[in-house]
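FAQ: What does the model actually see?

It sees only this:
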Amino acid sequence: MYLLDASAIINLIKNKKLEAFENASTTDLALYECLNAVWKEAFMLKRLKEETALKLAGSIAKIFSSIEAYSITGFEGEALNLALKEGITFYDAVYLYIAIRNGFTLVTDDEKLKDIASKYIKAMRSAEVP
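And it is asked to produce this:
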């Protein structure tokens, strides 16, 4: 089973690798990060038209309704400890902690997170997902 972070989700959608979501899960945090990335592309970077951004947001919502999203509730201290130990953001530590706790392969396009995660579990880029 794969645990996808927001960077992987966005890139899998961009590359139309929707079959990758069949054996995947994520965190509840990822929805907010994905939608923020769409907002950034549309509003700040002007790379997406508003209509396209709204369609993309709808596609993201559909994906999130079909995959399991794990919550960090009850494990906040463990995730924060991991963040402090590894020098990563709490957001990244949430993905890593949930992947470790459940024995999942972490899929991320964040090289720093991938390298750190590889010390604990299997980690890969979204392009490597079959």
